[in-house]
Predict the 3D structure of the following.
Amino acid sequence: MASYLPQNEGLLQYWLLLLSVVSIGNSIQSYLTTSYTRCVYSAPETTVTPLHARTFGTYTALASIIRLYAAYNITDTVIYQLALWTYFVALGHFYSEWLVFKTARWGQGLAGPLVISMGSTIWMLVQWGDYVR
């Protein structure tokens, strides 16, 4: 089983792998239901349609694939940068939906994505020199 895991040193690669697997599950559920997407975009005036949920799921799947590649190729500068950009985009999206567009409210549905995207961004920035050669 260990041979299927990323082979570099450090924990960041395992974090990226874990988030990729969890996010693929999130993408699949976004195609099946709007319930999770409604938890994130929970402002009273906000309507979450099946199209919106599938679009969210498609972006999440794309970001998951990039992060999965980064987990296994964490010393590749370009892949590392792409994975980092997925978190920057996620942060910008969630913060703007919350603070600018007012389609999301602070709560359990928004807290998870914000904490994970912010924590991952900071971790990747701090660890840059340890992985990128």
